[in-house]
Amino acid sequence: MSTQTSSKSSRSLWRRYLDFPLIWKLAIGLVAGAVAGLAIGEPITVIAPLGDLFLRLLKMLVMPLIIVTLIAGVSSVTPAALGRIGFKAFLFYLVTSAFAITIGLALALAVAPGSGLKMPGETVEGSEPPPVSETLLNIVPDNPFKALVDGNVLAVMFAAIVAGLALTYMRGSDDDRVRELGDFLRRGVDGAVELIFLVIKGVLQYAPIGVFALIAVVMGETGVESIVPLAKLTGVVYGGIALQIAVYTGIMLLFRVGIRRFFAAAKDPMLTGFVTRSSSGTLPVSSRAAEKLGVQEGVYSFTLPLGATVNMDGTAIYVGAATVFVANISGVDLTVSQLLTVVLVGVLASIGTAGVPGAGLIMLTMTVSQTGLSMAPVALVAGIDAILDMARTSCNVTGDLVGTRIIAQTERGMLRDPDTTDAPEPPDDSGTDAHSVSTAT
């Protein structure tokens, strides 16, 4: 009898845990991890594998998620509609990135965060980013399976888009056999989407433990050392990101998007991005948020993976601020030409860097070298990069969702149950309404 009672009690506790809102579980893990890290210090790094496991679980889902949702999404829209979506996504991401890096530069020039700090004695060898031409060429994989293994997101996206387009033409074929095979393959893709979202739902139940470990390790290694110039740089980056979030809010108001509903759905990916420091790793959570916002797969299956690769508004703010920080330490007053170079290189570099932890340092290395500044001060930025990376990644994934939500609203049939009823419907120039895709929520 006691055994049955204990079993029922355990199930009840587990059920209560599952029913407890994820955002609160993540918040508790975040606060508890920060307290534990500061209280215990360096020894807390012994629990690092718990955080690494969470990152691995998320990254495990990234490629399967991109493949199945992108094939499903592309095969649900016409090629003409896909071309419009891609153009709108690139335009939105590039414009907001240019705006973001300008915010970072303006705030840093006003605060001068590196003033009074001496240049460190040793230099930093930054990772050499690939040229833009090579990045664009590598979008077309010579071996899609190798691209999958290497984690080349753009190449995998290209292969998935080609497969989705082929599936679209199969389903619309005049040949009954080809059309039936296309419908059969589409049902398999829909089943794979349901499977991936079910796995995501399970992985997120482990998220609070992973969050606790990740934050505890970062706080344990960083400590509470308060170096004024570095604190200023941190303040500039976080302040710039707050302004960028305000810009997003203004854009959504222009399109009459429900702000409260948007952030209610976006809070989970924002917090996940803050903790994991990976736009790509947050894709599963961002996809769930897009579903909650009513965005169809035909949009988010393309815009979210693309945004995780090329949309780095938070990182752009960081690059602008950190470049001024490096110039302050080097005793260099940036010219107008150098500032324009920072904006241009920062925006273009975002295309060639992946949405993974530490990618911002690659962008910073490229920008600093292009402006002719010393690389030595980058060592100081690298010391607090984890703290800055948290906020900028959260901003990145927010920008991805804002762009996705707005693009969905401008495409007929790509937004279910919109939170605004007075927004004008866009003209239907695609010929047919998009086919909706059923996914797990």
What is the compact description of this entry?
With 441 residues, the protein is an all-alpha fold.
Characterise the protein shown here.
This protein starts with a helix and ends in a 31-residue tail after the last helix. Helix 2 (22-40) runs parallel beside helix 11 (259-276), helix 3 packs across helix 13 (297-310) and helix 14 (313-330) runs antiparallel to helix 15 (336-349). By secondary structure, it is mainly α. It has helices at residues 2-19, 22-40, 48-74, 79-111, 132-137, 144-150, 153-171, 176-203, 207-222, 228-254, 259-276, 283-292, 297-310, 313-330, 336-349, 359-370, 378-383, 385-410. The longest helix is centred in the first third of the chain and has 33 residues, at 79-111. The model is unreliable at 120-129 and 418-441 (pLDDT under 50). It has a single domain (28-410), classed as Proton glutamate symport protein. The chain contains 18 helices and no strands.
Proportion of beta-strand residues: under 5%
Structural class of the secondary structure composition?
A: mainly alpha
CATH architecture name: Orthogonal Bundle
Sheet with the most strands?
none
* CATH homologous superfamily annotation: Sodium:dicarboxylate symporter
> Roughly how many Å is the radius of gyration?
23 Å
Structure summary, number of beta strands: 0
Average pLDDT, to the nearest integer? 78
Terminal residue distance:
38 Å
User: In the CATH hierarchy, what is the class?
Assistant: Mainly Alpha
The number of helices is: 18
Question: What coarse outline follows from CA principal-axis ratios?
Answer: globular
Write the CATH fold name: Proton glutamate symport protein
